[in-house]
């Protein structure tokens, strides 16, 4: 009881400090720069909540004081059940009120007409929430959580209840609130009033839904064009990924290491670089185009600039991801089931089609879903190769930053894109639900997989070998393109592009980063290094809660977290712009919005990796720690985390790589002060500076390879050693059953 009281006291002290000692509203100069200390506390822009209320007339903050005061009063209730009920109620009510007043009061007054009708006109408004308001919102969340702990929820485990409450709150703020803001913005006028006219007009636009291409009269609308491209890309990448996985696991292919290397390269490559390489090969001044023109007199064409070019680039980009999904599935098919089929006189072809392939359905469905969503969200390749055949992601971009300046159209297009991806996500879950594909049980499962049928083996080799050669050629173009003066016009070898991007000089005795790319490069490294550990921490904490804890709504909680995976990056970017450009949370143009985007965009991968790793740890380890009176936080820190080092490292590396190579969401969120590498490269491509763009991309690939190599070395150092001896016996003595030791 004394420990619980101390926890509540610390939380209340923290809440009081946030209202009295921290600037309540957002500071233009930033909080962490500490420039505001000179104006604190009496200047209106830097005043804490108590002075905003008493001196500057922000009377709506009185409700915050009221609900926090109720929590403070509840602290002195003796009965823990009643104390918990009052504390939780005060926290929930305070959080709801803080959010509502932030939404209702904008810069110039009321943002809702109903508020003005009820309470009259406000003479002044309020800026966005700052350090004090954000801290108070977290205090209210923990007040609600600790109130439940007082009532014995989750066996009174404050760490677990607090973690669940904070995760739900953060997912609501950074996933569901932006999507909701986008929905509202689609039917809002500039003054905030309800006006669905633009939404209806854009929704009925023939340019989105037209099917005239089916009757040979014009082109399909952008929605069906994007949907068709996604189906084609997902089908091709899944088929190729399966072929790669079969070659890597079921054949004696001599270049398996090279095959695996080619699966890593596209993942660590900026998403539009493959499109650039295809331009260098098949563009009007490309190597292949000019060779065919000189040898056979074939006139250069523009066939690459359209859906065909986008499809080739996307299949090149996303096949490795399908391979990584499918290789574990192919290896996981039980050899004993294949042997049983052959024992029943089925030949290898029948066994493959009737036994092995059906057991791969979950992996095939996941690979198809990933390919579909990645194609829908792809921005870089359509921007480089799309020409006049725009897709949803590029149309959204031009509706926001182009001459159209039509936020309603961007919102409608984003909703169409979200509808397609969520439909695919839900369809996949419904198709797999209730079906059992388990092949690995607790029983021994010795034996080897059967060889592929001859026809299938020839077929997959006929697919994989040309594709490997084509991929090598494409990456050769990426390598060479940065060392050519002007591709197709002046093929003289030069280092000018690298020097322009990454030149360094000595000025006044110190190093000066004079290259044009250094600013965005260091910004990218800084934001990636901050977001990667946060992503890993949130993902692994969520995995611990899902795997180790049982609570009402756990399946809904997991589904809500994983649903953010199905939201394309383009939609995330647009929704963040619409949600965080105005009060109550204004983050556009700052590094914080980029970090938040990366954390909650990449979190599902960390969650799935953590779940897979944690499922291998027996629950008896946790139970032994808890039996010895360690709380959940100490158990996680001392027992779980040391055993999850490979999963932690994998989550860190993946998050770091994704933060560097992301473009679909980043393109909407960067600013002049915080410009990311991929956004800067897109600007180079739009200006026709292909040489510098390829040089910069090559540098990013080198950085990614270095990180991946470091990751592999780090994981490789963790080995299990089994000693075949027990105390008192010689090294060659037999070991009694059950006494094998793992070090």
TrEMBL record:
Q: Which residues cross the membrane?
A: 7-25, 59-78, 85-110, 130-149, 158-179, 227-249, 261-283, 303-330, 351-373, 412-431, 464-489, 527-547, 559-579, 591-611, 647-670, 690-715
Matches recorded under CDD domains: TM_PBP2 (cd06261)
Q: Could you tell me the membrane topology recorded for this protein?
A: Multi-pass membrane protein
- Domain of life from the UniProt record: Bacteria
Location comes to: Cell membrane
Per UniProt, the keywords (alphabetical) are: Membrane, Transmembrane, Transmembrane helix, Transport
Boundaries of each ABC transmembrane type-1 domain copy?
223-428, 521-711
Please report which protein family the annotation says this sequence is part of.
Belongs to the binding-protein-dependent transport system permease family.
The protein depicted here goes by the name Iron(III) transport system permease protein
**What organism does the UniProt record list as the source?**
Peteryoungia aggregata LMG 23059
């Amino acid at each position: 009881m004394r420990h619980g009281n101390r926890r509540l006291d610390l939380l209340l002290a923290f809440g009081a400090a946030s209202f009295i000692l921290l600037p309540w509203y957002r500071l233009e100069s930033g909080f962490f720069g500490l420039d505001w200390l000179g104006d604190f506390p009496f200047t209106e822009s830097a005043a804490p909540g108590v002075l905003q209320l008493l001196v500057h007339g922000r009377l709506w903050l009185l409700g915050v004081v009221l609900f926090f005061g109720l929590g403070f009063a509840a602290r002195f209730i003796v009965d823990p059940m009643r104390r918990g009920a009052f504390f939780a109620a005060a926290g929930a009510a305070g959080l709801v009120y803080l959010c509502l007043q932030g939404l209702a009061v904008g810069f110039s007054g009321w943002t809702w007409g109903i508020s003005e009708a009820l309470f009259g006109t406000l003479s002044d408004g309020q800026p966005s929430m700052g350090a004090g308001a954000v801290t108070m919102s977290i205090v209210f969340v923990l007040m609600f959580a600790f109130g439940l702990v007082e009532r014995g929820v989750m066996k009174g485990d404050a760490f677990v209840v607090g973690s669940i409450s904070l995760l739900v709150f953060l997912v609501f703020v950074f996933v569901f609130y932006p999507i909701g803001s986008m929905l509202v913005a689609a039917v809002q006028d500039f003054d905030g009033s309800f006006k669905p006219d633009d939404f209806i007009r854009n929704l009925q636009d023939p340019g989105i839904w037209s099917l005239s291409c089916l009757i040979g009269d014009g082109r399909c609308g952008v929605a069906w064009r994007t949907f068709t491209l996604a189906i084609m890309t997902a089908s091709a990448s899944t088929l190729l990924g399966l072929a790669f996985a079969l070659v890597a696991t079921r054949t004696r292919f001599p270049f398996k290491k090279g095959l695996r290397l080619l699966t890593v390269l596209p993942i660590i490559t900026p998403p539009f670089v493959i499109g650039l390489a295809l331009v260098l090969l098949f563009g009007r001044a490309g190597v292949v185009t000019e060779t065919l023109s000189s040898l056979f007199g074939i006139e250069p064409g523009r066939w690459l600039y359209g859906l065909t070019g986008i499809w080739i680039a996307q299949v090149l980009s996303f096949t490795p991801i399908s391979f990584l999904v499918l290789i574990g599935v192919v290896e996981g098919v039980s050899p004993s089931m294949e042997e049983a089929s052959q024992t029943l006189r089925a030949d290898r072809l029948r066994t493959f089609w009737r036994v092995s392939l059906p057991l791969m359905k979950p992996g095939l469905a996941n690979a198809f879903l990933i390919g579909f969503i990645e194609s829908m969200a792809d921005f870089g390749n359509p921007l480089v190769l799309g020409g006049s055949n725009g897709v949803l992601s590029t149309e959204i971009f031009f509706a926001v930053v182009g001459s159209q300046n039509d936020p309603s159209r961007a919102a409608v297009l984003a909703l169409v894109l979200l509808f397609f991806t969520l439909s695919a996500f839900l369809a996949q879950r419904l198709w797999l639900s209730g079906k059992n594909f388990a092949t690995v049980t607790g029983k021994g499962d010795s034996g080897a997989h059967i060889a592929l049928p001859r026809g299938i083996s020839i077929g997959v080799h006929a697919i994989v070998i040309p594709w490997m050669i084509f991929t090598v050629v494409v990456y050769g173009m990426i390598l060479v393109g940065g060392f050519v003066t002007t591709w197709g016009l002046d093929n003289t070898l030069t280092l000018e592009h690298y020097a322009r991007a990454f030149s360094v000089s000595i000025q006044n005795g110190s190093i000066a980063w004079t290259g044009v790319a250094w600013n965005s490069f260091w910004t990218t490294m800084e934001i990636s290094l901050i977001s990667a550990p946060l992503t890993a921490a949130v993902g692994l904490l969520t995995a611990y809660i899902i795997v180790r804890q049982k609570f009402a709504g756990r399946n809904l909680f997991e589904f809500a977290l994983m649903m953010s995976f199905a939201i394309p990056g383009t939609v995330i970017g647009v929704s963040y712009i619409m949600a965080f450009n105005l009060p109550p949370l204004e983050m556009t143009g700052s590094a914080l919005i980029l970090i938040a985007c990366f954390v909650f965009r990449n979190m599902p991968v960390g969650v799935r990796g953590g779940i897979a790793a944690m499922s291998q740890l027996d629950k008896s380890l946790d139970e032994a720690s808890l039996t010895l009176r360690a709380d959940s936080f100490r158990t996680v820190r001392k027992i779980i985390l040391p055993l999850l080092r490979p999963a932690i490292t994998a989550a860190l590396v993946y998050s770091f790589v994704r933060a560097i190579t992301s473009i679909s969401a980043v393109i909407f969120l960067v600013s002049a002060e915080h410009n990311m590498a991929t956004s800067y490269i897109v600007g180079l491509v739009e200006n026709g500076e292909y040489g510098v763009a390829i040089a910069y991309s090559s540098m990013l690939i080198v950085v990614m390879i270095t990180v991946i190599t470091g990751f592999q070395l780090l994981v490789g150092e963790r080995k299990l050693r089994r000693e075949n001896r027990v105390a008192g016996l010689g090294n060659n003595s037999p070991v009694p059953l059950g006494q094998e030791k793992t070090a």
